[in-house]
Amino acid sequence: MQAKEIRNFYINEEQSVYLLSHHDAKKHRQWLNICIKKLTLLGYENVEMIGSGAFGFVFAGHDDTGLPWVFKFSRITLAQSIRDRLEDEAYMLSQINNPLVPEFYAFERIKKQGILMMARAMGEDLEKVSLKKGRIGAAKIMTLAVRLRNVLLDLRNHNTGITAQPIVHGDIKPSNLVWDEASDALSLVDWGSSVYAQIDSDGNPIASNFMDLMSADLSTTNARMGDVYFIGEAQMSGEQSSPRFDEQGVAATLYALASAQSCRFGVDVIPASSLGLPIELAKVIDGMLSKNKQVRNSAGDYFMRNITSMAKAYLPELPKKVVKAAIPFWFSYDEEPETVVYSSRKQFLRQADHKQQLLDVNDAQLDRYYKEFLFDTGDTEKAFLASISRLAKYPAVGGLSFHWKDESLFVESSLILYNETLAAAFTDAVNNTVMLAQAISQKGLFKCCLFDARKTIQLERDRTGAFKFESLPELDFETVNVNASDVTRPHSYFEDGKDPDEQLQLPKKVIKCVFELNQIHHTGCIIFEALPDRLKIHHYYRLLDASKEDEFRRLLNKLMQYAVNITDVGVAGFMKLPYKNTREFSLCEQQSNHYYPKNPKMTL
Ligand SMILES: Nc1ncnc2c1ncn2[C@@H]1O[C@H](COP(=O)(O)OP(=O)(O)OP(=O)(O)O)[C@@H](O)[C@H]1O
């Protein structure tokens, strides 16, 4: 199967509504409003959007008795065949009767739009919790492990009343677990990848009756793709669906939460054994995430059998150590940005490995797999890219450059976080990025910019290709006066030659302006994304020398005047970081073991 060609390497991760064209953004908002209106007309009150995923949008509202409901709509941009899966999801959800699973209410169809209705799980999903809290401690991970194991057991023991009919959820991950801190209630949501298991955990076929066994094509899989950042190898490569899939989801979830990552791929570099978990739990998680099928399965069996007795251990919360950020960041108290990350020079992170057997490309998750460039990238590189995406889930702007040379990794950075309460969690996210970078052994350069999508300037072209505007929009900037002594420290744009991943030819005058700007002490980035019908200019600028404010503004205005002469299509950008080679790190393949103490009382 041929991979789709990827043209632009400054790929923004999740399309922020602010980056859509005005037309698309309007359509999107209108559609959300129609959904809300429809639900209100059906008699539900206080309708609001509470979540979205690759497949759909989720709204919440109350029925006339005050009971909280959830309504899931499939994305209108997806193929009808994919949208129709919402009905399958409704069916699978209706089969499950478990206190940890929201009750199925109804599946309705308004014209082509299906709506899945179910009970609302109160609280927040664990991905959001993880983003706020950073690494989750031993006791909480252990409690969650026991609860998830009990759900797995329940799914395995599912029966139709007459015969055994184990169910696979197929997409267990932090964002599909909703947790209410006040009541400690936990729910497993999103049954869109759920199917009946075809084989049991030992690989033996399951058939609810003899006819099924006769008619089923024993070699084809009914498996659905779960989130490519969390599913195990068997599900990814299209094996027959089995309860092992969910063991993988559980292990990946526990690992991601304990390590403050948004995927499973970092496990070789930051193993569960390095996260301060009890040794037995850490080993079982690492085992379950192993590449070796036998190790994986026996760890899975061990987990299912022993987690309840492991959880009897005394695991008091240990005094929190203040973790220092491996690279510095600063705070801003202005309005929080809508952060988007663009990255470049990913090319070298690829490893030619087209052996991956891919399932149905007509799948939103797989589409994401392609777009995010994961199909021929090693696990550590995937984890690194995922850690960069995770940084953009924080209200932060700035830039990072990673330069892998001989024996060291050099990181230049400028990061500003707009919410001080997130400092500890952001520190964990930043430190993971550095640890993962330390484990990349190829030589090369990677850079990324985080900016506020709300500030992106968009100019549409008319039929002749000229940009339409009444008055030329201005590139804005913040002024922060830093010490005079700092101003003299060296700083520079990337002067490392042309980025092979960028194709946009910028007018010479634009480049000249950028170099003139470089003479003034500041930090920031500017990315020109030229599409056939419009130009997006993503940017953020912080002037660090207030005495140069007028000159800085004049140059930015000039830059805009020249930018409207862009005729080419593609992406190009510049980033300026305040100091050169801010930090040097040694390479490190794997973090060392660190377990929860055998005798926590001694530590307390
Ligand atoms: N019953 C529910 N109660 C409360 N919140 C819910 C419920 N169902 C979904 N959500 C919230 O909505 C989000 C998106 O829902 P869901 O995962 O079902 O959508 P999706 O499009 O299938 O997402 P994904 O891309 O993760 O597969 C969830 O992460 C969760 O926060």
TrEMBL record:
Protein name in the entry: Non-specific serine/threonine protein kinase
Keyword Transferase: yes
Residues bound to ATP: K72
Keywords (A to Z) from UniProt: ATP-binding, Kinase, Nucleotide-binding, Serine/threonine-protein kinase, Transferase
Leader sequence residues: none
InterPro entries associated with the record: Atg1-like, Kinase-like_dom_sf, Prot_kinase_dom, Protein_kinase_ATP_BS
Ranges of residues in domain Protein kinase: 44-315
GO cellular component, one term: autophagosome
One Pfam family matching this protein: Pkinase
GO MF: ATP binding; protein serine/threonine kinase activity
